[in-house]
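Long-time lurker. I teach an intro course on protein structure, and each term I like to show students one example going from raw sequence to a predicted 3D structure in token notation. This year I'd like something fresh instead of my usual example. Would anyone be willing to generate the tokens for the chain below so I can use it in lecture? Attribution to the forum is fine with me.
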Amino acid sequence: MDFSRSNSLTIRQAAWLLGCGEAGVWRAVRTGVLPTVAGRGRGGVRVPVCAVARLVESPERGARR
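-- Reply from a regular --
Happy to contribute to a lecture. Here you go:
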């Protein structure tokens, strides 16, 4: 997976890192768990790397609420 030097990830990259699939990332965006940032170039929704990293390191990761 190619990670650019930007501070944001595509939905697909975030899904790969979180191991949850793109639908799970979209759910997190809709519920406000993951913020979004404006995409550049080809556009699209992107999420901040720091927010994804917090979720990866979270002890509650994968817990159903």
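Some talking points for your students: Residues 22-30 form the longest helix (9 residues). The chain has a mean pLDDT of 82.
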